[in-house]
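Archive entry: two folds, one per protein. Generate the first.
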Amino acid sequence: MKRSPAIIRVPLALLLLLCFSVSFSAQEAYDVRANYEKSEYQIPMRDGVKLFTVVYAPRDKSKKYPILLNRTPYSVGPYGPDAYKTSLGPSPLFMKEGYIFVYQDVRGRYMSEGEFVNMRPHKERKSGPTDIDESTDTYDTIDWLIKNVPNNNGRVGMWGISYPGFYVAVGMIDAHPALKAASPQAPIADWFIGDDFHHNGAFFLPHAFNFLATFGRPRPRPTTETPPRFQHGTPDGYKFFLELGPLQNADRKYFKGQVAFWNEIMEHPNYDDFWKARNTLPHLKNIHPAVMTVGGWFDAEDLYGALKTYEATEKQSPGAYNTLVMGPWYHGGWARSDGDSLGPIQFGSKTAEFYRREIELPFFNCFLKDKCDHKLPEAYVFETGSNRWRMYAEWPPRTAQPRAIYLRENGKLSFDPPTDERNAFDEYVSDPNKPVPYINGIAIGMTREYMVEDQRFAARRPDVLAYQTEPLAQDLTAAGPVKVTLYVSSTGTDADYIVKLIDVFPDDAPDPEPNPTGVRMGGYQMLVRGEPFRARFRNSFERPEPLPPGEVTKIEFVMPDINHTFLKGHRIMVQVQSTWFPLVDRNPQKFVPNIYKAGESDFQKATQRVHRSRAYASRITLNVVP
C-alpha cells in the first residue's frame, strides 16, 4: 500500500509503555453538553429524499475542526435539539481532541425519508443523475456538510462498526474528495459466504432470527421508536430453536409475514444474484481515502468482513493507504471493553485501550489534522497465545509457510501424513433431532464467548471426532488462513461438516484470578477457529449438488485467518462434527432443492465417515511463521 513519507515510526515498546501507563480513568465521564452544541438537519440527496442528520460541533470556535461521520441504521438518538449523547466519536479520546461529530440515519431508517434496503447493492453504473446507492448518499452528505457546517477544515473521516462499517466501506467507493480517512470496523462484506447470516452457505439460525425479529420489522414512516425485542418465552435457545422445527415454521408461528427480509432469505438458499449484489468486495476499487480496517479475532459476527475488506482493498486499490488492525476482541470489543480478556481467556494487557489511544486516534489525527506522530504498519495484529502485538509489512506474513497436520488413527493428529494403504476412516452417527450444542451452557442466541469456548463437552460426545497432537516441544505460531481438506462419505445425500481448530492447555495450567465462574484451565480446550461447510456447496455455492451416498467425497474450504501461538507443552486439536446447534441450522441430511423448505420428514440420521488413509489424507493446513 502507499505510505506517507511525512510520518515517522515510534518503536512498539515505547507505544506499549505510553499506552499501559494510562489507566482506564483516561476515559472517565466527559461533559458533552458543556463542550459541544447539537444541531439537527434534514440533508437532501440527489433524488430529493432527505436524511436525518445530527451534528455535534465544539463550542470553542477559535479554530477549525475536521468532521467525523457515522452513518447508521441503528438510530442517531436521542432525538431533539436538547437531548445529547453521553459520548461522541469512536472513543472518548476524540471528544477531548476536538472534532465535529456527525451521525446520520441511513435512508429508510428511523427519522430519514426513503426506503430502506438491506445491504443496498452498489451500482457501478448509474442510470442517471438521480440514481442512488449508499455511495451517492455518502457523497451527497459530505458535500452538504463541507458547505454548510461552520468551522470545518474541509476534511472528513468515517468510522462505523458492523452494519455502520458496511456504510463506511461503500462510502469509500467513488468517494467525495473531502473524505480523507475511512475506518470500516467489522464491516459486513458478504452475507452468504462469511458474515452474520451464513458461513460457507450454512445458515446461522439464532443470529439471523433474533436480529431480524426486531430489525426486520417494517417502518412505514419516519419514527424515533425502536420495535420491541422478540420474546422467546425461555432463556434456552437450544430448546426454542429445536422446538421451532423446520425453518419455514418461523414465519408461520412468529413473523406472520411482517419480516420481509427473513422471507427473502428463505427464497434464496443458494449464492444467486440476490446475494452477489450484496457483496461489497468487488467494488472496492480505486479507493482514495486512507483506510484502516479493524476487526477482532474472536468476532462472532463479521470477522470475515474485516479480513476480506482489507484484502480486497489491497488487491484492487494497490495505490491506497491501506492498513489492517486485528485484536483479540469480540464484535466491537475494541470500542466497548478494555480488551484484557474474553471469557476465561486472558490477553495479558488492556489491548482495546492500547488500540484506541495508540492506533485509532493517531490514524484519524494524521489524515484529518496532520498530527502524524508515528507510522502504522501494513498489519498491526495481536498474537493470541503468546499475547503480544505484532507488526507485519504484509498480511498474511510473507514468511509464513504452509504446514499440513493430518488426522491419524486412534485420535492422533500428526505432521506426518498417513501411510495406511487401506481405506481407513472414523465414523459417527449424526442425528439432526439430537444435534451437538455449540456451547456448554444456556443462551438464547449466539454468545460472544463461543469463539473461545472450552470444547471438552463436545469432545466427549459420540457424534464428534477429536484428534490431537502430542504436547508441543516448542512454540508454533500460525498466521493467516486455515485450510481444511476432508475426505468424507455419508449414508445421506447432504451434510454439514464443522471443523474446529483447538488449543489444548496443559493439565497443570493455572486458573484465572479472579475466577468468579470457577473455570478450570487444566486441560482447557480453547476454540481458536471453527467453521461449518455445507457439503451441497462443495463444487459451487451457486449450484448445490447432493452427496453420492457411500462414495468418498472431497470437502475443501478455508477458515478465516488466525494469528495464534500454540505454546510449548500445549497440544493442537481438531474436532469434526455435523451439527453445531442452534448456531447453525440443522441440515436434514437429505438433499432437497431449497434446504430452507425442508419438511419434518426430510430430517434423518446419517452415518458420517471421515477418511484418513494415504489416498484420502484428511488434514488442516496452517501458515506457520518460522
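Generate the second and append.
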Amino acid sequence: MILDSKIPAGPLAEKWTKHKFNSKLVNPANKRKYDVIVVGTGLAGASAAASLAELGYNVKAFCFQDSPRRAHSIAAQGGINAAKNYQNDGDSIFRLFYDTIKGGDYRAREANVYRLAEVSVKIIDQCVAQGVPFAREYGGLLANRSFGGAQVSRTFYARGQTGQQLLLGAYSALSRQVANGKVKLYPRTEMMDVVVIEGQARGIVTRNLITGAVETHAAHAVLLCTGGYGNVFFLSTNAMGSNVTAAWRAHKRGAYFANPCFTQIHPTCIPVSGDHQSKLTLMSESLRNDGRVWVPATQEIAEKLRKGQIKANDIKEEDRDYFLERKYPSFGNLVPRDVASRNAKYVCDEGRGVNETGEAVFLDFRDAIKRDGRNIIEQKYGNLFDMYKQITGEDPYEVPMMIYPAVHYTMGGLWVDYNLMTTVPGLYALGEANFSDHGANRLGASALMQGLADGYFVIPYTIGDYLAQIPPKKVDENHPEFAKAKEEVQNRIQTILSINGTKTVDYFHKKLGKIMWDKCGMARTEVGLKEAKAEIKALKKEFWSNVKVLGTNEELNQTLEKAHRVADFLELGELMVDDALNRNESCGGHFREEYQTPDGEALRDDENFAYVAAWKYMGEGQEEELNKESLVFENVKLTQRSYK
C-alpha cells in the first residue's frame, strides 16, 4: 500500500483553511442518520464525542472506567500549550510549530504540526468558556509558564491539576449531550476488536467488565481515543489500566502501526523504591521552571550522601553540579524531556546518583523559595509538593526533591493521514492513540493540546468528508462479520481461561517490562535489541502455555482483563524492538548508543531515516512488513538539534 497522507497542497499557513473548505459536508438533516462510535473518554474522546453529538450525529461512547472522569487525561499536571503570546515575549503560531518540530527531532509531519499550533489558540478560548479555572495574573489575564524545549512562556495551567480541570470541562460538554440523548454512554465496557466489512470499519466488539457479556455495536465510523501504550514497560507513569488493546486489535485488522519505538522518558518522576511498586508517580515538568537540577560534583561526595553520612543541604554550592545549566546555558533546566532524561542517566552512570540505588538526581527549590518566598511557590506547585511529601515522607520545601527518568508518553501509535483516518477506511485514531504530531519526542504540555485539538477542532470537519461519501442507511448488525468477530473474541477468552498454568499475569508483565526497560528503554543497542526480541518471543510462548487466570468470564474478573492486555503488550513489545532495531540512528527518545555525537547527543541520519515507519500486520507468527512515509521539510531546515 502507498501511504497517502492526504496533506493539502499550498502554503503551510493556508493548508488547514483550504482543506476545511474543500472537505465534503453532511447536511444537518442527514447528520442525525449517521452513527459514530467513540472508544475512550479522555480529552480526545470526550471532546470528540461532545462535538460530534453537538453537530447532530448519534454517538456511542465507551470507556472501561466507571466514569469518563476517570480517564488517564486527569493525570496530566503541568499545563497546555497555546500560541497566544499573552506574555508578549515573541511567541507565535510559527514559533510553536517550529519548537514542536525541533523538539520532535524532525520526525513529524510539518502540516499536522502547523495545524496543531494553529488551532491551539482556539482551545484556550473553548476551555475558558467551559469554566476551566486557569491560573490568572493579578490583572485578570490568563497566566503562562515555561516548559521544556521553548524559550517563551506559552503554557496555560491550573496549578498542578491542568489535565483534571480540562477533562472536567470536556466531561461537562459530554454530559450535556448524554442528557440530550445524542450520546449513549457505555462505562465499564472494554473494546475487544474492530469489525471490518468489505474493507471498512463498521463497528466494534466489547466485553462488559461487570458481567462478562460480549456484545457487538455497529456504526458508520469508529474513533479510537484510547491513549498510549507506556505500560508495556510495566513501571510507567500511566494509570494501571492504560493499555494498547484497542489500537492493537485495530492493527491486526489492517491499521498500520507507526513508529512504535518512539517512547518518551520523562525526567521528573519519583524514583523507583523497590519491587513492590506497580506504577510510578510523575512530578510535573512545570517544576523545572523554578527547581534546579543538580548532583554532587564528585563521586566521593555522592557516596557519602548515599551512605547517609551527609545530607543534601550540607553540600556546599561549589560542590554541586547543576549539570543542565552547565551543558545547556540557553535553555538550562528547561531542555526537552529526552535531553534532560539522558543527562540524568549520564551523571548517575558516573556514580553521582543521590539515593540509595544511585538512580536519582536532585530537583531543588531552595533558591526559588529564597527569591520568591514560600507562599509564591505554594501557590504555583502546592498540590505537587504535597503529593511528593505523601509518597516519600520528605518535605520539598525543606529538602530537595529526588527525581529520575521514567516511561511516560508514547509518540508512536496508529498511522493516520491528515484527516486522522487510519489505513482502514472509517477507522480514526485521535490523541495519543495516533502517531501524528510529536515526532520522536513530545514537548511538555503538548499532549493536552493535541487531544483537544483532535477532538474539538479537527475530527468534526474531517469525519464529514468521509461520511458524506457513504449512504446514511443503518449498518446491518446482522452481517456475518459481526458474529464472526464476536466468536473470535469469545474463543480468545476461553483459550486464556483454559490454560490454567502456574504463573500469574503480573509475572509475565513484570518480565516483559524489565526486558523493555533494560534493552529498549532510555538507551538501545543492536546487541541488546536482538537479545530482547529472542527473550520476548520465549516469554510470549511461555505465556500462552503457562499463564494462570482464575475465575470465569461471566463475572468481574480483573485478572482476565489484565491477561488480555498483557497478551497484546507481548506482541507490541516485539514490534517495538523490531522498529528500534530497524532505525539505525538516534532521534529524540529513540537513542541508539551506536549513533551519538562526541558529546553524547542524538545523531540523526536524515538521508536514510527521515520517514515514518508504518508497520503492517502480516498474520500470526509472521514478521511485520515495513512501509515508509517520507517526511518532506519545506519550511524548516534540518539541523542537528542544539539547546546550548
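Annotation attached to the second fold: The mean pLDDT is 96. The CA atoms of residues 184 and 543 lie 37 Å apart.
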